[in-house]
Amino acid sequence: MKPIQVGLLGIGTVGSGTFKVLQRNQEEIKRRAGRGIEITMVADLDLARARAAVGEGVQVVNDARAVIANPDIDIVIELIGGYGIARELVLEAIAAGKHVVTANKALLAVHGTEIFAAAHAKGVMVAFEAAVAGGIPIIKALREGLTANSIQWIAGIINGTTNFILSEMRDKGLDFATVLKEAQRLGYAEADPTFDIEGVDAAHKVTLMSAIAFGIPVQFDKAHVEGITKLAAQDIKYAEQLGYRIKLLGVTKRKAQGIELRVHPSLVPAKRLLANVEGAMNAVVVNGDAVGTTLYYGKGAGSEPTASAVIADLVDITRLHTADAAHRVPHLAFHPDAMSDLQVLPMSEVVTSYYLRMRVADEAGVLAQVTGLLATAGISIDAVLQREADEVGGEGSTQTDLIILTHDTREGTLDEALARLQALPTVLAPIVRIRKEELS
Ligand SMILES: NC(=O)C1=CN([C@@H]2O[C@H](COP(=O)(O)OP(=O)(O)OC[C@H]3O[C@@H](n4cnc5c(N)ncnc54)[C@H](O)[C@@H]3O)[C@@H](O)[C@H]2O)C=CC1
Ligand SMILES: N[C@@H](CC=O)C(=O)O
């Protein structure tokens, strides 16, 4: 049988890795797919770099639409990124009856509903294993391997750039800007690194996992998104002293009233495997009612690790494209007419525990005042740590840091209590609040 023909849009970090791995392992991939898979046409705005990446024998153009218009191309891989031209090209490829593979989580988290509906109507597949956690086959695990389960929650380190930054800052005492530059040099960071450091990239990914796990539409606009730019070094240090590490987590949970969908820095107990995921590595913990807790770990970014997931999708499509569309695995795991109407909960309804740091006047009665106010609000305290005044402001300081860990609390209740605490004359600076996930 003649090889299935693939057109590649964008041959940058992931595109070049995809081309290389497909060439290097072509014989083995063919034995698995039952048929050869060949990239025969590539589009990139940088023609010279694209030609250098593919060599002779592959048609290189700068107009992505020429690839989509080519009747010989069966599968289009979109590796350009962003929501603009990428959305147009993916929709045009679907309209032309091509199957699509993309690593573009931003596109799918924001326009997934439109794209999956178009693909369903046309009877083509849109595969996106590489869009979440790079080389880790988490989409396959959620959509197929765990299909027996009622998924209860997912928590993951799903942005390599921020995990790399947090690890390097903690281990080597390097500053934020230096480590970010290194992450960009290594090809981990997005074209716009604010997506990484402000938690947007992780929110795109957890939005996709949430949709697949709970059978809800992709709703990036409902996700709570906080990055790592406001994290202070002293909170990393205090967290360690309390037996925790701070990680940027994407969390989604099934609750009786709806779904929690959030990205923010979180304290994770140092003994948990997730707390020990370092550098640019990713890890996702999934809890299902039947299987219990499972962990998926690996490289979440980089040229060849991400290519590994792109090519897995190419193989899946090669195996399945002749099957009746009704017998393929649904894009979001649940059949489009069997989606759930569970709502994404507002943050005020999220229930979790907290780390609070308060700069307070170092005088008698302040601790009682603070804990009394929390008790009145019904917020139960798990641990209290008070730094010596001289550690905070030097010898003779009249200020101290009070660190409190709470038990589970409704966020709306905590917000009200924090507003009252902040108004106390003995609370001398904005209160720092970091959420805490026990992951048990
Ligand atoms: N770099 C990584 O480790 C990972 C990236 N991704 C996703 O993969 C996608 C690609 O990422 P990278 O390869 O890192 O990006 P990149 O910036 O290295 O490559 C993008 C390529 O697209 C080309 N391009 C831009 N506009 C174009 C257009 N209109 N027509 C044709 N070519 C065009 C650029 O010249 C460039 O060569 C993005 O959606 C990204 O979020 C996903 C997982 C990991
Ligand atoms: N910028 C992303 C790349 C993969 O999605 C990351 O740092 O994880």
Could you describe the 3D structure shown?
This protein is α/β, with parallel strands linked by helices and 440 residues long. It is built from 16 helices and 17 strands. The strands form two sheets. Strands 7, 8, 9, 10, 11, 12, 13, 14, 15, 16 and 17 form an eleven-stranded mixed sheet that branches. Strands 3-2-1-4-5-6 form a six-stranded parallel sheet, sandwiched between helices. Strand 2, helix 3 and strand 3 (59-61) form a beta-alpha-beta unit. Helix 1 (13-24) crosses helix 13 (303-320) and helix 6 (105-122) packs parallel to helix 11. The mean pLDDT is 95. Bound molecules: 1,4-dihydronicotinamide adenine dinucleotide and the ligand N[C@@H](CC=O)C(=O)O. 1,4-dihydronicotinamide adenine dinucleotide is lined by residues 9-15, 43-46, 64, 79-81, 85, 103-104, 130, 134, 187-188, 190-191, 301-302, 306.
Ordered list of secondary-structure elements with their pairings:
Layout (H helix, E strand, L loop, with lengths): L3 E6 L3 H12 L1 H8 L3 E7 L3 H8 L4 E3 L2 H6 L5 E4 L6 H11 L3 E4 L2 H18 L3 E2 L10 H8 L5 E7 L2 H13 L3 H10 L8 H4 L2 H15 L9 E2 L7 H9 L2 E12 L2 E12 L11 E8 L3 E8 L3 H18 L30 E11 L4 H11 L4 E6 L2 H5 L5 E8 L2 E2 H12 L9 E5 L4
Parallel strand pairs: 1-2, 1-4, 2-3, 4-5, 5-6, 8-10, 10-17
Antiparallel strand pairs: 7-9, 7-11, 9-10, 11-12, 13-15, 13-16, 13-17, 14-15
Bound molecules: 1,4-dihydronicotinamide adenine dinucleotide (NAI) and the ligand N[C@@H](CC=O)C(=O)O.
The site of the ligand N[C@@H](CC=O)C(=O)O has 11 residues, from α8.
